[in-house]
Amino acid sequence: MPAEAPPAPAAPLLVVRDLCVRVPSRGRMIPLVDRVSFTLGEQDILGLVGESGSGKSVTAMALMGLIDSPGVQITGSALFRGQELVGLPQKQLRRLRGREIAMIFQDPMTAFTPVYTIGWQIDEQIRAHERLSRKQARNRTVDLLAAMGVPDPAQTANRYPHQLSGGLRQRAMIAMALSCNPALLIADEPTTALDVTVQAQILELIRSLRSTYGSSVLLITHDMGVVAETCDTTLVLYSGRVAETGPTDALFAHPGHPYTAALLASIPPLEGPRPERLPAIAGAPPAPLERPEGCAFAPRCSYVHAPCLHAPPPPLVPTGRYASAPRRAEADTQAVPLPAPDNTPRPGNLSHGSPAVQARSEPASLRAAQFAACVLPAEGTPLPPRLKDTAPGPGTPDAIGHAPPPRPPSPSSTIGEPHL
Ligand SMILES: Nc1ncnc2c1ncn2[C@@H]1O[C@H](COP(=O)(O)OP(=O)(O)OP(=O)(O)O)[C@@H](O)[C@H]1O
Ligand code: SF4
Ligand SMILES: [Mg+2]
After folding, report:
1. 203 with 259, same domain?
2. 34 assigned to some structural domain
3. Are residues 187 and 219 in the same domain?
4. Which DSSP state fits 321?
5. Distance (Å, rounded) from C-alpha 190 to C-alpha 220?
6. Among the four residues 81, 88, 140, 302, which has the most C-beta atoms within 10 Å?
7. Which residues, including other chains, have CB under 8 Å from residue 203's CB and lie 6 or more apart?
8. Which residue of 58, 74, 220, 224 sits with most ligand 1 atoms within 8 Å of its CB, as the best mutation to test the pocket?
9. Which ligand 1 atom is at minimum distance from the Cα of 55?
10. Strands 101-104 and 14-25: what pairing?
11. How far is the CA of 258 from the centre of ligand 2 (A)?
12. How far is the CA of 210 from the centre of ligand 3 (A)?
C-alpha cells in the first residue's frame, strides 16, 4: 500500500513581495521602503528589526493602508490570506483593519484619544465590527483588560489614557488591538517606553497571543535582544531595504550580512568576561534622499570593497519552510545565475534572493565579487580585496576606520545545508 503523502504545509498568513513605498521629493520619487519581501506563517512571530529610520514603521503602515502622504506610491504585493492589500480601496481596508489586522502603535499615549476613557474607545472598536449592545461590548472590554493582566479592569476601563501608567496603557492598547480577535497583530515598538520588568511582561503577553488567540505577530523593534527572546523569524532592514531574513536561531548563530553581524556584536554578552567597550556601528544610516547608489551600508561596513559601491547587493533570504512558495518567479527566471566564488561552505541556511536587478545591469565578475563578500567569510577564508590594500588584523580598525565585527564560528558548526 502506498505510504500516505505528508500533509501539505499550512499556507502562510501574509506574503509580502517587493513592497515599495515612494514619496515625491525635489522632483523625484524617493523610496522609503525598497522591494521589501517576507513571509509570515500562521501563529508565527516575525521580528522586523533595524536602526531608527530603516523603514520599519513605514512598512507596517503601508500594510495597514495608513500612509496618506500626498503623492505617495505604494507598489508590490502583500497577500493577506490570499487577498491583495496593496491598492485595496479604503472602504475594504477599513473592514479588515481591527477585525483581521490590528496594530499596536509606537506610542500608545498618542494612539489613544485623550478625551475618552480607554473603556469607551475599546467598546467603540468592538461595536464598529460587531453588532453588540453597549453593555455586551463593555463586558468584552473588561474581560480583555483582565486577560491582559490589568488590575481592577472594570474601574480601569473608566479611566482616561493619561491616568494610566505606561505599562497599563500598553496593555490597554493590546486589549484594544485584540478586541476583534485579529489574525495578524502588528506591534510597532510595543516595549520601547517601558522599564525592563514591564517590558518582559508585555513580551510574555505577546508570545502568549498565538496560543490563546491564534494570532500571528509582526513585531517591530530595534532591540535584537527582544527579537532573540520572542521571534521565530527575523527580518533585518537597513535604509528601507532587506539586508537579511531567516529563522531567528540560524540568523543569530550565523549572521550572513555584515550589518546583522555588527548589530549582534553590539549586544552585551550575558556570559563570560564583559568587554571594556561594546563595538558600535560608526555613523548613521543614510536618509532616504541621501542613499548612495550602491550598498547603503557601504560607508559603515567593515567588508566594503569596490563592487559594493556600484549596486546594492540582493537581500539574503532563507531557504527554509517557505522556500518553495512562489516568489519572484518571473524575475528569477530572467536572472543570470550568480557563480559561487568558491566551494567554501557558507554560514547559515541562506541564499541570495532576487539577483535579477543586478544580473541585468552588471558584468558577472562584479556580481561574483560582491556575492562573495556580503556573506561573512568563513574562518580562514581570505577576504576579497577591500577599497584599500591593507586588510586589518582581527579587532583593528579597517580601511575605512571601523572595527570589523567578530567572525562567525567555523564552517564545521554551520546550521543546515550550504545553498550558495
Ligand atoms: N510620510 C513620510 N514622508 C516622507 N518621509 C517619511 C514619511 N514617513 C517616514 N518617512 C521617512 O522614512 C524613513 C523611515 O521611517 P520609519 O518611521 O519607517 O523608520 P523606523 O524604522 O520606524 O524608525 P524608528 O525606529 O525611529 O521608529 C525615515 O527617514 C523617515 O524620515
Ligand atoms: S560587503 Fe559590500 S555589499 Fe555587503 S554589506 Fe558590506 S558594503 Fe554592503
Ligand atoms: Mg518606527
Report:
1. no
2. no
3. yes
4. T
5. 8
6. 302
7. 191, 226, 229, 230
8. 58
9. 18
10. unpaired
11. 7
12. 24
Query: Using one digit for the tens of pLDDT, what is the confidence trace for 193-229?
Result: 677 777 888 888 888 888 888 889 999 998 888 899 8
Ligand 1, atom 24, lies closest to the CA of: 52
Strand ranges (E), 10-70? 14-25, 28-40, 45-49
Question: Which domain does 374 fall in, by range?
Answer: 255-267+297-318+345-411
For residue 334 the three cell numbers come to 530572467
Total-model pTM = 0.78
Q: Both 230 and 377 in a single domain?
A: no
Question: What single string gives the DSSP state of each residue in 139-158?
Answer: HHHHHHHHHTT-SSHHHHTT
Identity of the residue numbered 61 = M
Q: Mean pLDDT, to the nearest integer, of 356-367?
A: 39
- Name the residue at shortest CA distance from atom 4 of ligand 2: 374
- CA 313, CA 358: separation in Å to the nearest integer? 8
Pocket of ligand 2 (CB under 6 A): 257-258, 295, 297-298, 301, 303-304, 308, 313, 370, 373-374
pLDDT of residue 127: 92
